[in-house]
Design goal:
Blueprint: H1 12-27, H2 31-36, H3 44-50, E1 54-70, E2 73-86, E3 91-103, E4 117-126
Antiparallel strand pairs: 1-2, 2-3, 3-4
Length: 127
């Protein structure tokens, strides 16, 4: 039997910290670290291309943050507003939600699976 994951790492606050870390990595142009937070289908090269003109990113979190469990996993929905400054000085604004997932403390799961990661994002441009 696995030792339980510390409660502080399973909360919505921990999921928010993952999204915050993601945007810190993007702002630092540390795309490998940012990409590692995702469990998506996008290739690394396509991921980097998506940020090629982004100079900095600022994220604001919109509570409440929701978590729920389902069949061996937990999910967190994190609402955000994002401001991205481009190389040419323009600022783009986005709003939407990130869905994060972690495998619950089940036999056979790895430490990496039991950490929050971004499963999906739905952001749209705003004005």
């Amino acid at each position: 039997m696995l030792p339980p994951t510390p409660p502080a790492l399973t909360t919505a606050a921990a999921a928010v910290a993952v999204v915050r870390s993601y945007y810190a990595a993007v702002s630092a142009h540390d795309y490998r670290r940012a990409y590692a937070i995702w469990h998506g289908k996008l290739s690394y090269a396509a991921f980097v291309r998506g940020y090629r003109h982004t100079r900095t990113v600022r994220v604001r979190f919109i509570p409440p943050f929701e978590t729920e469990g389902a069949a061996g996993s937990s999910y967190a929905t994190i609402a955000v507003k994002v401001d991205a400054r481009l190389d040419d000085g323009r600022v783009q604004h986005f709003a939407g939600n990130y869905t994060l997932r972690r495998v619950n403390d089940v036999d056979g799961s790895t430490a990496a699976q039991r950490r929050w990661h971004v499963e999906d994002a739905k952001l749209a441009p705003t004005h």
